[in-house]
Amino acid sequence: xxxxxxxxxxxxxxxxxxxxxxxxxxxxxxxxxxxxxxxxxxxxxxxxxxxxxxxxxxxxxxxxxxxxxxxxxxxxxxxxxxxxxxxxxxxxxxxxxxxxxxxxxxxxxxxxxxxxxxxxxxxxxxxxxxxxxxxxxxxxxxxxxxxxxxxxxxxxxxxxxxxxxxxxxxxxxxxxxxxxxxxxxxxxxxxxxxxxxxxxxxxxxxxxxxxxxxxxxxxxxxxxxxxxxxxxxxxxxxxxxxxxxxxxxxxxxxxxxxxxxxxxxxxxxxxxxxxxxxxxxxxxxxxxxxxxxxxxxx
Length: 298
Ligand SMILES: [Zn+2]
Hints:
Layout: H1 5-46, H2 49-54, E1 96-98, E2 104-109, E3 119-120, E4 123-124, H3 125-142, E5 146-149, H4 161-173, E6 177-186, E7 197-200, H5 209-224, E8 228-232, H6 238-242, E9 247-254, H7 258-265, H8 267-287, E10 291-293
Bound molecules: zinc ion.
Zinc ion is lined by residues 50, 58, 110-111, 117, 125, 184.
């Protein structure tokens, strides 16, 4: 069959165009996908995993070099501070008696219910926080100190994850607790070598949070032998920002670190942590004259 030249030309053009568009779309499609993956990888690297997974505004502090925007001088932890956590008993818990009719502290086990916090295998942060918090409660109560809990079972505090953080602070503000200690565990999947204990405080709300945080941090490190990551600040941490009495938030370790995962899964280690935290709280109560040391006379 004889072809009309103009028809041939047109069909040739038609044959070339789809290939051109196909290449065009493939090229820009790959480019866009590449950018997306790169941006995601960047995001994952910069945003600590707990924030990504549960979005509770939890503090997860990557090693200093990886922190998105380090605030100079914001981390003022001084592990060698001889003033803080000063107690030589192995448990870190000083034997005390009340210096007044009653004294209450509030313990806040982070997360709970649908909000499990961070996970590693079958270790769920909300369960870990609660287990340690209940041991802290028992130790303090054994010294005659009243303990209020934001939760003492596996329940969601408040109407939602984020709102619950305000609920926790409000619970404390409406109570007669003289201080609040929030218990959390850290996670940093991007670098599983990161480990240790750190404690957050917000001194703009209450200047004495500095002392409470230092006592709790030092006593917890001393009781466990864990790495001392010092005191930290994060203005976005709702519970310690909205609580009016001295408060702090301890990150008891990284569940993403293989050794600390093992430790934090171990009941004996959790008890050690609890002794440290309770001991730090008692050190603070001693400083503030809410309790007094029991003098043993022979
Ligand atoms: Zn947490």
